[in-house]
Amino acid sequence: MKVVIIGAGVAGLGIGWRLRQAGCSVTILERAQPGGGASWAAAGMLAVTAELEDSPEPERALALRASALWPAFAAELEEASGRAVFLNQGGALLLAGDAAELEVMRSRAGGDLRIVDPAQAKALVPLLGGSLGGLWSPREAHVDNRALAEALTIAFLKAGGVLNPNEAAVRIETRGGRASAVLTPYGRHDAGAVLIAAGAWSGLLEEIPIVPVKGEVIALSPPSGAVLPGPVVWGEHVYCVPRHGRLLIGATVEEAGFDTSVTQAGRKHLRACAEKLMPSLKSWSLSDHWAGLRPKSPDGLPLLGGTATAGLFVAGGQYRNGILFAPAIAGEMADLILGKATVDPAFDPRRFLGDLHE
Ligand SMILES: Cc1cc2nc3c(=O)[nH]c(=O)nc-3n(C[C@H](O)[C@H](O)[C@H](O)COP(=O)(O)OP(=O)(O)OC[C@H]3O[C@@H](n4cnc5c(N)ncnc54)[C@H](O)[C@@H]3O)c2cc1C
Question: Which of 216, 243, 290, 329 has a beta carbon 3.0–4.6 Å from 252's, enabling a disulfide?
Fold first, then answer.
């Protein structure tokens, strides 16, 4: 089967890689450069505890499946691509903002999740100022998401996939009610199946209800002698991720259309929140500042599956967790396109979409 995938983020690349491994002919169309969308802007956390406490069960189950897949997925990808993705399974410390939050954390503790008092928190992260303590989660991890997208690109190409950068899909054609081709300014790509994995831009192509949610991130560099935190640290309105000698501080959350400009207000807010947790960050220098667009659906859950148009699939709406979900989405969407699996009804794109080509 020939599959045309629209979008070379971690979703499109991961699914494309799995489909190539299964013997499909796969072309990925990317309007800019691979891995340059949200997959570039992300902080790379595999935040299975911190991000998903309020999520409905199907999404938590997806997160747990993905989290369990990550170590083997990273090893397989590194082997296939010859590139490191820097999977770090160093855990995360979730600090309580007040006594009420600490109580909620107490109710979540159990198994490998344990409550830490202020002294234990400080022992885990010596940079902390005063804190109320919080929840320690050894199951949290993070990867270098930019390295991940590069490794996926290489693995996909080495597996024989075709990747066309700087070629935007502008229209999906149907024949006899089936998706049959993707049109671009340069030509037409016939397809047995078409997958829309265009991140926050998916709704520009078809009537897919995915909106962009802007997030700004800053990176701080330590003065000489200062040591980065080992684990990821979560506090009020902020998370701090150690990455290659810098501390990433994220992220703002704003519906601002497709604007990816960085703002002084965003920078100040992120710095202030991080310095409240770790006062000595005041002497760290700002070394980078960027913004990206998370793809969000109306109910906040991913859209993973077919549409009412035969042969037309969507993998989108991963919102804040598309890096975490990547290994599960890659395998499960490839199986679905190959007709070997069905979609979880909670993620079925048809909950929002009619026949896109009626
Ligand atoms: C600031 C920020 C922090 C985040 N932190 C985390 C985190 O710590 N952990 C986590 O799990 N997730 C995180 N996320 C979310 C995560 O980045 C996304 O959910 C994930 O990257 C989505 O992947 P994707 O492949 O669907 O989209 P993208 O990576 O955005 O890729 C979509 C691609 O489609 C291309 N495209 C768009 N339209 C077309 C077209 N018409 N034709 C061809 N190509 C097209 C785009 O150019 C882009 O390259 C974060 C996101 C942001 C913005």
Answer: 216
